[in-house]
Amino acid sequence: MSDLWHELWIALCLLLVIEGIIPFLYPQRWRSLVSQLAQISDPSLRLIGFISMLVGTILLLLSR
């Protein structure tokens, strides 16, 4: 069980690194994207989130 938590911790750390790349390299573009996202309806954002989770799950299954 300890290995699972260790790998989840590594995954979280990598997620934070990847999420931080765009604001670090292109702060103006990132700010513009965030302001555009604020104008998208909740159902559309939920659909985008669901598709993202689905693609991530499929990629995880394929990588095994």
Task: Please characterize this protein's 3D structure.
The protein has helices spanning 2-25, 27-37, 42-63. The chain is mostly helical and 64 residues long. It has one domain (2-63). The mean pLDDT is 93.
Biggest sheet overview: none
Shape, per Cα inertia axes: extended
What is the arithmetic mean of pLDDT?
A: 93
Number of helices: 3
Low-confidence stretches: none
Helix content: over 70%
- What is the total number of structural domains? 1
Radius of gyration: 15 Å
Structural class: mainly alpha
- What is the rounded distance between the termini? 18 Å
Q: What pattern of helices and strands is seen along the backbone?
A: HHH
β-sheet strand percentage: under 5%
Number of strands: 0
Describe the protein's topology.
Elements: H1 2-25, H2 27-37, H3 42-63
Helix pairs in contact: 1-2
List keywords for this structure.
64 residues, mainly alpha, 0% strand, extended
Brief rundown of the structure:
With 64 residues, this protein is an all-alpha fold.
